[in-house]
Amino acid sequence: MLLRENTPLLPYNTFGLEAQAAHFIEIQSVAELNQALQSGIRPVFILGGGSNILLTQDMPGLVVRNRIRGISVVRRFKNRVWVRVGGGEVWHDFVQWAVSQDFGGVENMSLIPGSVGAAPVQNIGAYGVELKDVFVNLEAVDLATGRARQFSRPACHFGYRDSFFKREGKGRYCITSVTFSLSTRQHRLNTSYGDIHKTLENMGVQHPTLAAISEAVIRIRSSKLPDPAVIGNCGSFFKNPETDRAVLERIQKTHPNAPHYPLPDGRVKIPAGWLIEQCGWKGKRVGNTGSYEKQALVLVNYGGATGQEVKALALAIIESVEKSFGVRLEAEVNMI
Predict the structure, then answer these.
(1) What span, in angstroms and rounded, lies between the C-alpha atoms of 238 and 164?
(2) Is residue 194 over pLDDT 80?
(3) Residue 44, strand partner residues
(4) What residues contact residue 14 under an 8 Å CB cut-off, 6+ apart?
(5) Nearest-10 crossing angle of helices 91-100, 210-224
(6) Does some domain include residue 215?
(7) What's the pTM?
(8) What is the C-alpha separation between 70 and 74, in angstroms, rounded?
(9) Which domain holds residue 161?
(10) What residues have CB less than 8 Å from 34, skipping those under 6 apart?
């Protein structure tokens, strides 16, 4: 464990933005985390995979990169297992491991970038499945006291791309492990969302398996989202807005075929990418940044962009969509 000063964060954020950490350290255990906290350097910022942050300035204090690894089955039931995963594990690596074990529940979330420890913060989700659906509990360390604490599912206050850790608990904890409940038999396969069913047909799959669904999701995501190693990005930049049906009905007066998805509470979810595209942003380049040509929901760094440039583009898109549709988009990405 080495404490470094004035460390470039370019290799640690998928937007490919230049920024520096006044102090930087990588930890591989809870003991090393506590040792880092004892340095007294404040504030402390926990960095996972760097795939959901927009760095708009240099980072003061101490940036801690969570590299706590390990995947293990901790309990077995008739049709399920509980699997504990280190917060520093790469999310997609964990999904691939689960699929290889024929453990079901996370296959629809294949290829989501980031770390396992960051996943509950965002309550990540894709293609009809969210993390909360397979969540048991997590262990976290209080950055102020160094004390370990376990959070149950209710304590996490999960919402759509939201949790306790994005609100009241923001910046207060480092998630060191997460425990998931996965099926071992009688899997409930979800192939109805998005293009999964169509992609499976194109793959020649008549009887879907966990591995086939995972592969289908990987193909879909790869076709729509740019590789951060080639074009800097954080995936979906905005949440899909959830709004009253009256808002949808107003939009349908001018856009009768506006896509939408009903919610259990009677409201509807409208794809943010569609709203952005209707406002003319899809594929539009502004300086060194822009909206991706294949998916308007993705903001990209074509090279040399600053965090402030990306932020300015995001705010311009938010204002444009609100002016055109009366719907205010909310960033999914954490703007630092």
Answers:
(1) 19
(2) no
(3) 62
(4) 49, 50, 51, 113, 228, 232, 233, 234
(5) 150
(6) no
(7) 0.90
(8) 12
(9) 71-183
(10) 141, 146
Is 332 known to be catalytic?
yes
Q: For residues 49 and 53, what is the distance between their CA atoms, to the nearest angstrom? A: 9
Q: Determine the residue type at 150.
A: Q
274-310 pLDDT, tens digit per residue, is 999 999 999 999 999 999 999 999 999 999 999 999 9
Phi, psi values for residue 58, rounded to 5°: -65, 155
Please, what is the Cα angle at 271 between 269 and 276, to 5 degrees? 135
Closest CA to 63 of 23, 32, 35: 23
Q: Please, where are the H alpha helices in 74-206?
A: 91-100, 119-122, 153-156, 196-202
Residues 60 and 95 in one domain: no
Kindly report the CATH number assigned to the domain that includes residue 310.
Answer: 3.90.78.10
H or E segment to which residue 54 belongs: strand 53-54
pLDDT tens digit sequence for 43-60: 999 998 898 899 999 999
Residue 20: which CATH number? Answer: 3.30.43.10
Q: Are residues 25 and 98 in the same domain?
A: no
Is 161 catalytic? The answer is yes
236 in catalytic set:
yes
Count other Cβ atoms within 10 Å, centred on residue 166.
Answer: 17
Residue among 161, 163, 177, 214 flagged as catalytic: 161
Whether 193 shows a pLDDT value over 90: the answer reads no
